[in-house]
Amino acid sequence: MSTGWIVLGVIVIIVLFAFAAYNRLVALSQRVSQAFADIDVQLKQRHDLIPNLVETVKGYASHERGTLDDVIKARNSAMTAQGPAQVSAAENQLSGALGRLIALSEAYPDLKANANFQQLASELSDLENKIAASRRFFNNAVQEYNTGIQQLPAALFAGMFGFTRKEFFDLGTSRTEVETVPSVKF
């Protein structure tokens, strides 16, 4: 009779560990989703700002059609990207195109002095800082989640519950492109 109680006690403990592990992993997964949604909000604000910036630059540097087209293409690509890996790659291309667009202001003193351009550039700079902070928060949440599914006792149950590894929002292979300063030649 006492062996039956011991077996029942062990089963209850295992079930309690499974419930606790599942609830913790759900909470961590929700944190990752919320962090990605925060990035998405910041990126949408940046996407909304870009057409105004392009129109302002177009008025002063209309013959820079290639740069303006690159920014619009990169924006459209970024708006349709899905998931952290695609969004990260598309946003890195957009950041590079925006860097080239902002660099144009150095060649056009009238553009650089334009109050509308200055305000848009300031808003863009502020958004870039917010996006960087959101990326750090997201990557921290992903790190905690990935660690959570690999630690015992959750590792015993994570696969059964469908919890899989999440990807970081990283610069990846395009890091050299983002770190390269754009050259402006006329």
Average pLDDT for all residues: 84
Shape: rod-shaped
* Radius of gyration from CA coordinates: 24 Å
The biggest beta sheet is recorded as:
none
Helix content: over 70%
Would you state the CATH class?
Mainly Alpha
Q: Do you know the CATH architecture?
A: Up-down Bundle
Determine the oligomeric state from the structure: single chain
Distance between the termini: 91 Å
CATH-assigned homologous superfamily: LemA-like domain
What does this structure look like?
The chain has 186 residues and is an all-alpha fold. The protein has one domain: de novo design (two linked rop proteins), CATH 1.20.1440.20. It has seven helices and no strands. Helix 2 runs antiparallel to helix 3. The longest helix is centred in the first third of the chain and has 59 residues. The chain is rod-shaped. The N and C termini lie far apart (91 Å).
Offer a concise description of the structure.
The protein has 186 residues and is mainly alpha-helical. The protein has helices at 2-60, 65-80, 83-107, 109-113, 115-150, 154-158, 175-179. It has one domain (9-164): de novo design (two linked rop proteins) (Up-down Bundle), CATH 1.20.1440.20.
Task: Please tag this protein with its features.
186 residues, mainly alpha, de novo design (two linked rop proteins), 7 helices, 81% helix, disordered C terminus
